[in-house]
Amino acid sequence: MMKKLLIYTFLTLFSTTLVTAQNLPTNPDPGKCYVKCITKDVFETVTESIQVHPSYQTLSVVPATYKNIEERVLVKEASKRYSFVPAVYETVDVAYTTGGGASELNVVPAQFGTRTQSFEVYPKTSGWEYKQLENCQSVNKEDCVVACYVERPAQYRDVTVTTLTSEASTTKGPAAPARTRTYKKQVLKSPARVTEEIIPAVYKTITRQVVDQPARTVSQTVPSKTQTVTRTILKSKGGITTWEEVDCKLLDPNVLPIFYELASARLTSESKRIIDNTLMPILSSKNVNIEIMSHTDSRGDDAYNMSLSQQRANAVVNYLVSKGISRSRLSARGFGETRLVNRCSNGVQCSEGEHKRNRRTEFRVINN
User: Fold this and answer.
1) Which pLDDT tens digit goes with each residue over 16-56?
2) Cβ atoms within 10 A of the Cβ of 309, count?
3) At 32, is the secondary structure helix, strand, or coil?
4) Which of 108, 132, 333, 358 has its CA 20 to 30 A from that of 310?
């Protein structure tokens, strides 16, 4: 009696330790089945606008303007004339300037350079992956499952950006030379003597060119240029393990009662109604994954049938995605004519009804 009690205690402790080590559900109900569910990483696509060329200034030169002015100048001074000895004069040239005085302005354009800027377009991710060891000797295949924590590096994209190294400027050129003109002037060399006679001065009006508005620069702002970059960011981290109770029959392949026309993967309205009534309640109420398995009959080429069956499985998955189910919870597999449910293999005469049974789709709940 004591020996049986020790054995029972040991088995109880071993079972409790095994459940804890594998993180299995606590207090499970007898005859119930549970599926391990690991929440997925949630990603979000964002669009950002980046500046790839800065704003800068352009300069243009407005030339100087000139105007003509009139000026009254003395060309003969007043003098005196004497009766006995006339006054003696000599003629001299008097110089004056006209024009010139303004400097030319030259534009030096803005200077640019380039640099490469790296942007993260897909974040660094990590998560658990499960792998079943080959040549497993245990009857329970769960004993040969290895969990590997896999880390995937972030992805980057290089964008070439133009930078402004120096703004536009101006330099002064040499001033335009002034033009020299002369006029004649009679200067009294010796005055008259004895009697005196007043000789009035003589004036002349001359025209000369002077600067009205000096040369100047006008600046204009060229706006910056931007480029739109789309990248994926990690919105929320997954990896949380939960257990969902499911009907044990759902873990084995279950026939989804939809059948296909010959050589077709099209879902009829009746097939869609069956999917809505059969699969949608499971996916909506539980956080589980479902595998869709489609098959063909034996008529036709084997390779063609394999492709057709994959198209049929994809059709069911695509329909579920259109109903709001995440594609990450669905798996599609085509088996062609490799899993016939009756004797109707290649070369065997069968009725259309017998062939129709093989053109089927099955589903089962799987761990995610």
Assistant:
1) 444 444 566 666 666 556 555 545 555 566 777 888 788 88
2) 27
3) coil
4) 132
Q: Which residue from 202, 198, 197 is spatially nearest to 186, judged by alpha carbons?
A: 202
Instruction: Report d(CA 79, CA 291) in Å as an integer.
Output: 127
Tokens of 38: 């690991």
DSSP-derived pairing of the beta strands 254-256 and 361-366: antiparallel
Please write the tens of the pLDDT for every residue from 299-315. 989 999 999 999 999 99
Q: How far apart are CA 80 and CA 156, in angstroms?
A: 100
Residue 234: count other Cβ atoms within 10 Å of its Cβ. Answer: 15
Burial of 331 (0-12, 13-18, 19+ CB in 10 A): middle
Hey, what are 305's tokens? Answer: 């049938």
- Prediction pTM value: 0.40
Give the helix ranges, DSSP H, for 132-245. none
Q: What is the dihedral of CA 311, 312, 316, 319, to 10 degrees?
A: 60
Can you state the percent helix, strand and coil of the chain, rounding each to 5? Answer: 20, 50, 30
CA distance 60 to 79: 56
CA distance 211 to 68: 9
Please give the Cα distance from 225 to 97 (Å, whole number): 52
